[in-house]
Amino acid sequence: MKKALILLGLALFLTGCGAGAAETEPPPPPTKLSQPTRTPPPTATSIVTPTVEVEVDGGRSGDPLAMEVGELFSTSGSCAVCHTNLTDDTGADVSIDSSWRATMMANAARDPYWQASVRSEVMDLPELSEAIQDKCSICHMPMAHTTAADMGQKGVMFGEDGFLSPDNDLYSLAMDGVSCSVCHQIREEGLGTEATFSGGFNIDTELRSPDRVIFGPFKTEDGLASIMQSSSGYRPIQGLHLSRSALCASCHTLYTSYVDASGQI
């Protein structure tokens, strides 16, 4: 009897285990690892540099142009009195002084690199100082140089008596560089020939105000010509040579003198 009960209990136990096993869910299949993917680089973001807008009256900036009237030349500020505030049909500023003041010609005398180059040459060759300064000031300080030459003097740049000294009477003319009344007074004779190269341009130094002649590429009406002559001391005359490269070549074609073994030019 006892043996039968043991067998019956064992049978019931095995039956319960089988039922539990049948109800158990099978394990999930193994998860497949995804293949690595390439992540695109981030989109570049442009950097905007902040700017500061400065309003300038009339759209112009900088120091006023020099105002001086000499016997042979007038500085750019004197010309700008009438040749400024000019606009085209679209309203754009086409004033002559606005275009000129940032050019190499306007800054020919103030250029620190040029001044340093001449100073270096003078320091290396002090015995040729006078010749170097006279030669270099012909085209970089033409109004001062031509005025000094008319008085029988050499062009001197450095020192207490030099053109670069504010105490010099020709300082304003010198620092105005290649100004309006230089190129517009160059005469046509000899342009394009070797005689006018290296600063050999021809400017009439005999005439005095109000009979000095100034050239331009366009013809000026008699009424306007009279107004300009009475206000500036220059009589405008049409000169087509103002539009020729030969005029520019009078300074931009340069031959410098050589020095022989004995130090003579």
Write up this protein.
By secondary structure, this protein is mainly alpha-helical. It has a domain at 68-252. The protein is 35% helix and 4% strand. It is built from 10 helices and 2 strands, in the order ααααααααβαβα. It has helices at residues 2-23, 76-80, 96-100, 112-124, 129-140, 142-150, 171-175, 180-183, 222-232, 245-252, and strands spanning 212-216, 234-238. It has a two-stranded parallel ribbon with strand order 1-2. Strand 1 (212-216), helix 9 (222-232) and strand 2 form a beta-alpha-beta unit. Helix 4 (112-124) runs antiparallel to helix 5 and helix 5 packs across helix 6 (142-150). Residues 47-57 have low confidence and may be disordered.
Helices, strands, pairings?
Blueprint lengths: L1 H22 L52 H5 L15 H5 L11 H13 L4 H12 L1 H9 L20 H5 L4 H4 L28 E5 L5 H11 L1 E5 L6 H8 L13
Parallel strand pairs: 1-2
Helix pairs in contact: 4-5, 5-6
Describe the strand arrangement of the main beta sheet, using strand numbers.
1-2
Spans with pLDDT under 50 lasting ≥5 residues?
47-57
Task: Assess the beta-strand content as a share of residues.
Answer: under 5%
The N- and C-terminal alpha carbons lie at a distance of: 149 Å
Order of helices and strands: HHHHHHHHEHEH
Number of strands: 2
What level of helicity do the residues show? 25-40%
Nearest-angstrom radius of gyration? 43 Å
Structural class computed from helices and strand pairing: mainly alpha
Envelope shape:
extended
